[in-house]
Amino acid sequence: MKIQKACKHCSYMTEEDNCPLCGNQTSKDWQGYVIIVDHTRSEIAKRMGINVNGKFALKVR
Question: In order of start, what are the domains of the chain with their CATH numbers?
Answer without folding.
Answer: 5-60 (2.20.28.90)
